[in-house]
Amino acid sequence: MSQYTKLSPEQIPAGLFDRENAPLLSGILRGVEKECLRVADSGWIAATTHPIGLGSALTHPQITTDFSEALLEFITPPSHRLGMLLEQLTSLHQFTYRHIGDELLWSHSMPCLVGKSDDIPVALYGTTNRGKMKTVYRIGLGHRYGRVMQTVAGVHYNFSLPGSFWAFMHQNEGSVEELDQYTNRRYFDLIRNFRRNYWLLIYLFGASPALCRSFVQDRPHALQPFGEDQNTLHLPYATSLRMGDLGYQSKAQESLYVCYNSLESYVKTLGRAITTPYAPYAEIGVTDSEGHFCQLNTGLLQIENEFYSAIRPKRSAQKGETALTALCRRGVEYIEVRCLDIDPFSPIGINADQIRFLDIFLLFCALADSPHCDRTEFQHILANQKIIVSEGRRPGVDLITPEGQSISMRQWANELFDAFQPLAELLDQVHGGNAYSNSLKVQKNKIDNPDSTPSARVLTELHEQKLSFHQWAKQRAVIHKRTLLAQPLAPAVEKLLNDMAEESLTLQADEERQEQAPFSDYLKSYYEQYQRCCNESKVA
After folding, report:
1. Do β-strands 334-340 and 155-160 pair in parallel, antiparallel, or remain unpaired?
2. 229-234 and 71-75 strand pairing
3. Beta-sheet strands, E only, within 90-245
4. Mind listing the pLDDT tens digit for each residue in 199-232?
5. With contact defined as beta carbons under 8 Å apart, do 194 and 310 qualify?
6. How far does CA 43 lie from the centroid of its chain?
7. Structure pTM?
8. Which residues contact 218 (CB under 8 A, 6 or more apart)?
9. Which residue of 16, 65, 243, 409 has the lowest C-beta tally within 10 Å?
């Protein structure tokens, strides 16, 4: 057994099982950010602008866009009630369907029919400097990676343990650190353990083993036609092509080493990637011959959001503040899990069993020992991701332990599930019932029966229904649309969302009436924050 899959009784403080301490875990805050493409009835990516009935993509707190005008993003506010989170996400889908006419919300992480890169519309955010920066950032992504790659969608899961939990752990350990420093350190312990083990999440929840040929276009790839269907490409044992080289990964970023050993090392290594010029991007230039912005800067990253990591430490930023500056000033507030495919079998892309398992998984990452990570282990983590992405369901597949030893995926997974069991029982005790233990059983079955994974189910349905990937994904989207529209949207909820949309439009109009500094001056001031983060010898 690897030291990284152990969870001894001493690592789960007995006090967590006391009834009076239930709020330490019932107060976990969760949120979901779910992306999905708007697709025309023809099956092609929608060419329409962001619907006015949804409000302003710049200022709406819950309905916005990601890379493209056609790539919606739904954001639920933090909640400690799982049922409320799912209700809110459902309401956002229902409300949106009432404002997009005959269009569909794509049911899959890999996109619908897409044309040439230049035909994919970049998201627009208005005339303010803040809005221009968001649009130019996306233009830069298009130059760096191509716009087609930016049509890939996913689900992000935001998770934070209550401050009272960290105070309890701080006291239980007899730590002499300041509580905020202790909390930051323990969140980075969680992140390192997550990175060691997130291959398991890709295996369990990966749902993109196939894609439409239009996605790869003229790019080199190792995908195979699915049977006689030349328009569907796949790998027979793949789990999540989205998380591989063809999806939301970057060859350029493979050379980037971001250190997760502390908040300070994370801020400095990520900040350097933003502030240090990268030759291939310097060739693009910041502006073209006519003075139009091509990208925000020439660094390996334009901003921290460009770092395609499976997990991020997060702190809510204030107006005009970079995410790294917010982390420097106020520490980690929550973590964002970014390796989840859209669940094509759920109308809203995620379900309660999956969230409960994520809670168990993340609690394990928070409690287990978490030694510092070096560059060698960093490469092992990347290698494991690639193995699981392309051949995770292959019988007998092996991975690399953090210690550098070969281990069967199944053995490693079973060791982890053994460690998860007492945490599932603890969370059942906190919430009542046995939903967490049942969730653990559902996921454990996928280890014993790879055909029950979402990726295998997708390929099975493609085969049995004799459909192309595009036909099947569109069919799922139509089914989900009917399901969502058949469910009533509470009048009070609909009024609230209408009011939020109208208010967001007013907020953008008010912001655009304010005098704006020259955009180049705005950028200079913005990037000075990164320099300060990199130059500080200590993180506040």
Report:
1. antiparallel
2. unpaired
3. 104-105, 155-160, 210-212, 224-226, 229-234
4. 999 999 999 999 999 999 878 889 999 988 889 9
5. yes
6. 25
7. 0.95
8. none
9. 16
